[in-house]
Design a protein that fits this description.
alpha/beta, OB fold (Dihydrolipoamide Acetyltransferase, E2P), Rossmann fold, Ubiquitin-like (UB roll), 4 domains, 6-stranded mixed sheet, 4-stranded antiparallel sheet, 17 strands, 29% helix
Length: 444
């Protein structure tokens, strides 16, 4: 019987329309806007000026503090300006605008196709290379990888878990990466194991990607300590706590981290990025993005330079369909709808989903009928209807006691609600407010 997490979860239609679409390299854009905050933590500090010529792979913003990371130019050309930009979240932030001139890479990047499996760097050197190369979690959280790999004194990691689940509907970027870059990913997993000083790693992949399971299982014997495991298809299996429970049956307590139960979780895309950083000296300047939707004439998976406008990806996929009702960055359950297609692709952009109007509208909201479907769906045993009510009425102290900050914002509650209640919207509001309260208390 396939492993999975025991509590909650939903089964939305998979809609993996691009599972057979091989990764296509998108042409270098005419210009990019590269935000200096593409990770959890402090924004990076710009180290170039207007008029400077930069090469592909050159540092343009340096990490500020421990929880931060470097930002690199994804193209070569002249810095047009350093200005604010409205990003995918709707907030303003600083970005470096670069006009492309050719494609001249820094000399230290190895651009050959040879796969290098021999690991020469030490644990500390691997972690340092992740910081220098701007590697972050590519599963969506964008947590700086060097921070995750730095095990604090008093903590111990005994196993690495690798997330190849990709449970969000529509998205297939990780799936294609596992099929096309399997050996590089497994080498990246070995690098992560060495950085953490662990002897064992488990890769979890949902059973709807049997070709990826089979491919990595065939390669795994060449990489001691790494095993591949097929998991039952259930959303949100790719969440850290749920993956940990499914693979090694450990329970991460409320308010604690995976490291508190002896493990670290990394995404397969992150493992590939670590491989390129350590073995090829290539910083994180591009990533695979799924562009998909039922009405698109050419949905696909594209290798895209960071900073490329979303509009360019939609053009490559056949252009914006007339019946488009909503454009979502990320998956339809956890992603964010955008109204401006000139927002740039960032390190955390896993997909662009174009939903037709008849699929993108919300239900008319009606009264809660106390059916408890939101409670049954929650993988963390939270009472979503209660958290929404508390947030709506401004009862944030009570919301904190009811563990609102544990919510991973997976959207399962809203997906299952027959009354069309905007549960996650209000929970996000309450969670943001409570986290602000917690920070203010800590500063006193």
């Amino acid at each position: 019987m396939l492993k999975t997490f025991p509590t909650g979860g939903v089964h939305p239609p998979e809609n993996k329309l691009t599972a057979d679409a091989t990764i296509e390299c998108l042409p270098v854009p005419q210009g990019v806007a590269i935000p200096v905050l593409q990770h959890i933590g402090s924004p990076s500090v710009v180290v170039v000026n207007k008029g400077d010529y930069v090469k592909t792979g050159q540092v343009i913003a340096q990490s500020k503090g421990f929880v931060s990371t470097n930002i690199h130019s994804s193209v070569s050309g002249k810095v047009n300006r350093i200005d604010s930009i409205i990003d995918a979240t709707g907030y303003k932030q600083t970005a470096v605008f670069i006009e492309t001139e050719g494609d001249e890479w820094i000399d230290t990047i190895k651009r050959d196709k040879d796969i290098i499996t021999e690991i020469k760097l030490s644990s500390d050197e691997i972690i340092r290379k992740c910081l220098e190369s701007g590697i972050v979690g590519l599963g969506g959280a964008t947590f700086p990888t060097h921070v995750k790999l730095t095990v604090p004194s008093g903590k111990k990691c005994d196993i690495l878990l690798v997330n190849g689940v990709e449970c969000e509907p529509y998205l297939t970027a990780d799936h294609r990466l596992m099929l096309e870059k399997g050996e590089e990913i497994l080498t990246g997993v070995e690098l992560l194991m060495k950085a953490l000083n662990v002897e064992r790693a488990m890769i979890g992949i949902e059973a709807n990607k049997q070709d990826a399971v089979s491919h990595l299982t065939r390669l795994a014997p060449l990489f001691p300590g790494i095993s591949v495991h097929a998991l039952k298809v259930k959303y949100p299996q790719g969440a850290e706590k749920q993956l940990i429970k499914a693979l090694i049956n450990r329970e991460v307590p409320s308010g604690r981290l995976p490291l508190d139960v002896g493990t670290v979780v990394q995404n397969v895309g992150t493992a590939f990025a670590v491989y390129e950083a350590v073995q090829k000296n290539k910083p994180l300047i591009e990533r695979v993005v799924t562009v998909t939707g039922r009405s698109l004439s050419k949905p696909g998976n594209y290798l895209v330079r960071i900073g490329t406008p979303v509009a360019r990806l939609i053009e490559a996929s056949g252009g914006l369909p007339e019946d488009t009702g909503k454009i979502i960055l990320g998956g339809p359950l956890m992603g964010k709808a955008i109204s401006n297609t000139e927002v740039p692709v960032t390190k955390g952009t896993s997909g662009i989903v174009l939903l037709p109007g008849n699929e993108s509208g919300r239900m008319e909201i009606s009264r809660c009928i106390r059916c408890a479907k939101c409670i049954e769906a929650c993988a963390l045993n939270l009472e979503a209807y209660l958290l929404m009510t508390l947030s709506e009425k401004g009862l944030f102290e009570r919301a904190e006691r009811e563990r609102i900050t544990d919510c991973m914002e997976c959207g399962s509650c809203s997906y299952t609600c027959p009354a069309g209640r905007p549960l996650l919207d209000y929970i996000r509001l309450g969670k943001t407010t409570v986290m602000k309260m917690v920070r203010e208390r800590a500063m006193k």
